Amino acid sequence: MTISKFFLILLQSGHPRDRLGEVNFRVLRRVQKKLDQFIRTRPEATEIDVWLESPGGDAHIAYRLFLDLQHRCRSLRVVIPDFAKSAATLLTLGMDEIYMAPSAELGPLDAQIEHPDREGVTVSALDVSKALGFLGDFALDYIVKGGNSVLQSTGLSRAEVLREFSRFSARFLEPAVTKLDPHLVHRASKQLAVAHHYAKKMLGLRRLSDEERKRKCDADEIVRHLVEDYPAHECVISRDEARDLPLPVQDAEDYAQWDIAKEFWNLSTKESFRRTSPPRLSIY
Predict the structure, then answer these.
(1) Which of 216, 140, 228, 139 is nearest to 189 (CA)?
(2) What are phi and psi of 256, to 5 degrees?
(3) Minimal CA–CA distance to 108: which of 235, 248, 224?
(4) Distances from the Cα of 276 to the Cαs of 7, 20, 73, in angstroms?
(5) In 192-217, which positions are buried (b, 16+ CB within 10 angstroms) versus exposed (e)?
(6) Considering only CA atoms, which of 155, 73, 86 is closest in space to residue 124?
(7) What angle do CA 117, 123, 128 make, to 5 degrees?
């Protein structure tokens, strides 16, 4: 059987004025039209390689894009010359093979939400959802450690020390607690749940290699790590770290068309080329 290979080139700027600068509904529709135009072969005779650079975007759209791509082919690969962050990392999780350059990066799935008071500013959904728990842990730790010191240096009873320290902690933390918007905390928790839900489904839907089947990769643990374990949304997940998760990551240097992909990416990063003919979305 003859296999037809197609290359989807999706290089996104992340610029707020660029309507195709992140994973969004416009990009999904544009990709679908391109796929309908170029791919006429049966899925079992089709392979799709995605050359991807993206700061992320909408998790729902990333999941829909993955479903559309997977439906059209028997093998789905992604090549990352530089970065695929946030929702682009989510998209990558569904790929059968992941090729990363030496300095390429994925990112945590800690969703970002709009700041409640500052227009155009985003904050970590993980930080917001855990804020109340952090304040509670801080208060308990303060009472235990501070109370123990007071108990040793005064003649007060344990009950008196506990009562007074509890009152002081409540007054001390009240300004911070009153600033927590229950609606925002709930929304942050929902956004994290969305990232977890889609990531687990995509890991379960991709085609596993024989080696991965032997290793019995724990999707829940991979997703938990990506959602919860990184201190900042900007953290870099290198190809070695991604392999350790474990994800099906290979060196980009071993990708058959790497020289072409790298040259194409180098060309796309030149400002003069971006102004005249930005290669934002193409398929060959």
Answers:
(1) 228
(2) -60, -40
(3) 235
(4) 22, 16, 33
(5) bebbbebbbbbbeebeeeeeeeeeeb
(6) 86
(7) 95
Q: What is the pTM of this model?
A: 0.77
Tokens of 240: 């070695």
Strands 97-100, 249-251: pairing is parallel
User: Which residue in this structure is represented by tokens 């170029």?
Assistant: 38
- Using CB atoms within 10 Å of the CB of residue 282, give its burial: 0 to 12 exposed, 13 to 18 middle, 19+ buried: middle
Q: How far apart are CA 186 and CA 198, in angstroms?
A: 19
CA distance 57 to 221: 23
Distance CA 125, CA 187 (A): 8
Tokens of 244: 């350790």
Whether the Cβ atoms of residue 158 and residue 151 lie closer than 8 Å to each other = yes
Q: How many CB atoms lie within 10 A of CB 113?
A: 18
Average pLDDT estimate for 150-166: 64
Least confident of 16-20, 66-70, 128-132, 197-201: 128-132
Residues composing the chain: 284
- Judge whether 101 and 82 are in contact, CB under 8 Å: yes
Structure tokens at 151: 């108990």
What CA–CA distance (Å, rounded) separates 205 from 284? 25
